Protein: Phosphatidylglycerol--prolipoprotein diacylglyceryl transferase
Amino acid sequence: MNEYFLLPLASLPFPNINPILIQIGPLAVHWYGVGYIVGILFAWWYAKRLAANARLWPNGILPMKPEDLDDFIVWAAIGVVLGGRTGYVLFYDLPRYIAHPLDIFAVWQGGMSFHGGLLGVTLAMTLFSIKRGIRTWSLFDVVAAGVPVGLGLVRVANFINSELWGRPTDVPWAIEFPNGGPFARHPSQLYEALLEGVVLFLVLRILTHSRLKLKTPRFVGGAFICGYGLSRIFVEFFREPDQQLGYLLGTNWLTMGMILSSPMVLAGIWAMATAKPVPQSQPA
Structure:
């Protein structure tokens, strides 16, 4: 039976939260933008706390100065926005933007790619760490540890915006989204918020504070990359593929999100498997 005809006996009502948090005249503040801003600020604050905790680092030597992270937040914001937008244009809707190139700059209409944002921030971290003489993987580790909070907030904003909803289903918690047709669907945005946000943050917290993996450069960063990739691939089985792309390679399950996330899993496994602790200094 076609999945689009699987209608449940009942579904949960969509909360209909206004996507605009505050509007003053023509100026509107959207939940989506707030999610990005709060996520970046939290990652900055959390990274500073990690970088200042000598117990977490090899030989108790702090990897960077607090002002380094103060300066890096600007680089991170630029990397997220430029990388995320560029990734969406290239990976998800290139024909549209070739036909209407000015739409590339209409970021208020939505359209950001996590994978593109990751590439943008990775480039920013690499350049910044070289410029400041900081171990690149240690910078990646402290930044990655706080990123899941922002990911979770943005996924909640996707839910509020009634976008990126899931496939039709008859599960008891299915929701009829206002622009999702006459179908009850998986609230896949909330699945992602839980896995990419809450669960991944807690896993990384255990690695940084209980397992002391910041003493093993690139392990925490690798765990983040791998954890996100696995979470995204899993949720893609419940998420409706982008309309302009649909399913890929003639399948009814393979999506662009799966294809872009699979190398992340492999890269994360490689990073964790090859990470080596920094040798402990011996007393004189």
Observations:
- Residues 66-91 form the longest helix (26 residues).
- The helical segments are 31-51, 66-91, 94-99, 114-132, 136-160, 188-210, 219-236, 256-274.
